[in-house]
Amino acid sequence: MRGCLLIAAGVVGALAALWLLMLGAMATYHAVSGDDMTDGMWDMMPDMGDMRGMMGGGGGGPQTTGSASGFGTVTISDFRFEPTTLNVTVGTTVRWTNGDGAPHTATAKDGRFDTGRLDKGDSGVITFKTPGIFEYKCSFHPSMEGRVVVAENTP
Questions:
Q1: Number of neighbours of residue 17 by Cβ within 10 angstroms
Q2: Nearest Cα to Cα of residue 84 among 148, 9, 23
Q3: Going by C-beta distance under 8 Å and a sequence separation of 6 or more, which residues neighbour residue 105?
Q4: Cβ pair 77, 138 in contact under 8 A
Q5: CB 149 within 8 Å of CB 87
Q6: In this structure, which topology does domain 50-151 adopt according to CATH?
Q7: How many CA atoms are closer than 13 Å to the CA of 15, on its beta-carbon side?
């Protein structure tokens, strides 16, 4: 009886070791193949921003304002756009740069512009050629919101 228990424990232990070895091999494959496993995670969980919002992040915090003429910048950090409102003049190019580990976008709520997916360190630029208020959000994390206010150039 005792011998059967030892054999069963050995088989279970061997199967557990094999399972761990397979997981390690898959992680190694993804690391050397350039396939970031976290990309797949974010693609499968597009509403992660909503969960982060419930945990104290994701678009909360103080509203901030910045201004620019010709060239402006918005930083994406801690699941926020900074500044949240950017006042610019017609013809200004705005650059969004993602400093978060999660992918983000700056996508106009009315569909007029989209930076596309920005992974950590990536930037996207949009030039604003007409006056108006352009509200935008992150497609992956809709609780992240911002605004670009474009005014006519004054002589």
A1: 10
A2: 148
A3: 114, 115, 116, 117, 118, 124, 138, 139, 140
A4: no
A5: yes
A6: Immunoglobulin-like (2.60.40)
A7: 6
Identify the helix (H) or strand (E) that includes residue 103: none
As a whole number of angstroms, the distance between CA 81 and CA 23 comes to: 36
pLDDT digits (tens, 9 = 90+) for 19-34: 666 656 555 544 444 4
The CA distance from 114 to 123, in Å, is 12
**Residue 73, C-beta contacts closer than 8 angstroms, at least 6 positions apart:** 94, 95, 96, 97
Residue where the block lists tokens 């569909």: 111
CA distance 23 to 19: 6
Compute the distance between CA of residue 82 and CA of residue 96 in angstroms, rounded to an integer.
Answer: 9
Q: How far apart are CA 122 and CA 52, in angstroms?
A: 22
pLDDT value for 76: 97
pLDDT, tens digit (0-9, with 9 covering 90-100), for 38-87? 445 544 444 444 444 433 345 567 889 999 989 999 999 999 999 999 99
CA distance 136 to 113: 9
